[in-house]
Write a structure and sequence with these properties.
Elements lengths: L9 E4 L6 H10 L3 E6 L10 H18 L4 E7 L2 E8 L7 E2 L2 E6 L2 E4 L2 H8 L24 H8 L11 H13 L11 H7 L12 E7 L7 E5 L3 H16 L21 H14 L8 E6 L2 E7 L8 H5 L9 H9 L9 H12 L5 E4 L3 E7 L3 H8 L17 H12 L6 H12 L5 H8 L3 H13 L3 E4 L6 E4 L1
Parallel strand pairs: 1-2, 8-10
Antiparallel strand pairs: 2-4, 3-4, 5-6, 6-7, 8-9, 10-11, 11-13, 12-13, 14-15
Helix pairs in contact: 6-10, 7-8, 8-11, 14-16, 15-16
InterPro entries: ArsR-like_HTH (IPR011991), AsnC-type_HTH_dom (IPR000485), RecG_C_sf (IPR038475), WH-like_DNA-bd_sf (IPR036388), WH_DNA-bd_sf (IPR036390)
Protein name: MarR family transcriptional regulator
GO molecular function: sequence-specific DNA binding
């Protein structure tokens, strides 16, 4: 079973010898870890020639013998300089010269037949998540210091090469958030958030944008947005609003208008791109894809919520079930993601407030797509014209939301009925229970008194409950 960060084995040897490859094999089979070797340095801390030669020879030796990519660094350990060999976990059980080893409890063990069977079957056991796997080709020195200091709160003038206490505190903060492993290397999540070029280590860690015009099969023009995840988010939104969305209607006087009306609001597009980046399956090697047509904008990413969910589940109240929980938690720590499981509600609310059609959501076997129509006519076009790279766009959702169906049934039991305003107020509360009567009234184009009457009727029917005070509480749909 793959070890957790706090269980990662550490082996110590005085020098690099042939039997060290056995130890490396054992540590890799145990889930990855570190091998610490003595280092020769002079009084100024410079590496002597012999140690320098060893540092260069270890990675190719490990690669040739075991097919592993390891990193070797000069570190301080217990007040003295040492060589640290960072060993990644083996994707499948490894053997060295036909023998399987497993490092445990400070010793390297040769596996007997029974232990080997358990090791060979460990894929049946819960494995470490992709986002927490170490990227051994990188170190903290490769990360963007500005992003690191923003995340950890460290001083911007920190010299990570000399201020060892500050460095240790930063590493501990990154480990706590799942952005660095216990062996001092960034995780996949750390590379996505804190590296300037994550695509160097994670194939497809970019956003691809294409403009297809009316019903094009190939893009008329396209861009690929690179950088850290945060830079991809902001760079994609900027490109869409500065370069792509104005092309949806070249004759419009403002980039805020589409062929027949207003374009999707910036906040809604921002939230949709953020959702795609945060919940993507990065092991797929496929970029997030944004396809812009004359009448709609579609965002597709490989990765979806649990298999038991459908589009209706997304639109209703649901728990937060992120594919990349450590990545999402780190984005929340940065204040980029607000709350749990309310991203879809925020997208819908931004569109409602802007007076534009709600987006269409589609869940496939391994993909999630959101499509923003720019007018009511494009709802029909979205169901007819296929998107390049993707399956056909989703058919508009015409069935009633589950909360409205339940509300009508409850009203019938009380031998009464709901008004159209009642149902719309209930639908808005289901999206965000913190909405106030004035804000709902503005969204629906009705008076506050009408909204408050709906509150009372819905409450009397047992459909909603007020949690907390009138000033700081919220409505809960029962």
């Amino acid at each position: 079973m793959v070890a957790s960060d706090r269980m990662l084995p550490i082996a110590r040897r005085s020098a690099w010898r042939d039997d060290c490859l056995e130890v490396v094999c054992g540590i890799a089979n145990a889930g990855g870890g570190r091998l610490i070797l003595n280092a020769d340095v002079d009084s100024r801390g410079s590496v002597k020639r012999r140690t320098n030669r060893i540092m260069k020879s270890i990675p190719p030796a490990v690669d040739q013998a075991l097919g592993l990519v390891c990193a070797v660094e000069l570190v301080l350990d217990g007040g003295r300089f040492c060589l640290e060999v960072v060993i990644p976990p083996a994707s499948e059980p490894l053997s060295y010269r036909g023998v399987f080893y497993f490092y445990q409890d400070g010793a390297n063990h040769v596996l007997d037949d029974e232990a080997l069977d358990r090791l060979l079957q460990r894929d049946l056991e819960p494995d470490i998540k992709w986002e927490l796997l170490p990227v051994v080709q990188a170190s903290m020195d490769d990360l963007n210091l500005g992003l690191v200091t923003r995340f950890t709160g460290a001083a911007r003038d920190t010299d990570l090469t000399t201020d060892l206490d500050e460095t240790a505190a930063i590493e501990e903060a990154l480990r706590h958030e799942g952005l660095m492993t216990g062996v001092g290397t960034p995780t996949n999540a750390g590379i996505l958030l804190l590296h300037d070029q994550p695509q160097r280590f994670i194939p497809g860690a970019t956003v691809r944008i294409g403009f297809f015009g009316a019903r094009g099969i190939t893009p008329i023009f396209e861009d690929e947005v690179r950088g850290s995840l945060i830079e991809q988010l902001h760079g994609t939104v900027e490109l869409l609003f500065e370069k792509y969305l104005p092309r949806m209607n070249p004759f419009a006087g403002s980039p805020a208008t589409g062929p027949h009306g207003a374009l999707p609001p910036r906040d809604a597009i921002h939230e949709a791109i953020l959702n795609a980046l945060a919940h993507k399956n990065y092991g797929s090697g496929t970029p997030v894809q944004v396809s812009v047509f004359s009448d709609r904008l579609c965002i597709d990413n490989v990765g979806r919520p649990p298999r038991t969910w459908d589009a209706g589940t997304l639109l209703g109240r649901h728990t937060s079930r992120p594919n990349n929980p450590s990545l999402v938690a780190a984005l929340r720590s940065l204040g980029i993601i607000d709350g749990w499981g309310n991203g879809i509600g925020a997208i819908r609310m931004h569109c409602m407030e802007a007076g534009v059609p709600e987006p269409l959501f589609s869940l496939r076997d391994d993909e999630t797509m959101v499509c923003f129509p720019t007018d009511n006519d494009s709802l029909l076009a979205a169901s007819m014209a296929p998107s390049p790279h993707l399956a056909p766009a989703p058919v508009p959702r015409t069935e009633l939301a589950a909360v409205q169906v339940a509300a009508r049934a409850a009203a019938m039991q009380h031998e009464t009925s709901l008004t159209f305003s009642d149902e719309r107020v209930l639908a808005l509360i289901d999206i965000d229970g913190r909405l106030t009567a004035p804000r709902i009234a503005r969204n629906l184009g009705v008076s506050e008194s009408t909204v408050r009457r709906s509150f009372r009727r819905l409450r009397e029917l047992g459909l909603i409950t007020r949690i907390g005070s009138d000033k700081s509480g919220f409505w809960q749909v029962n």
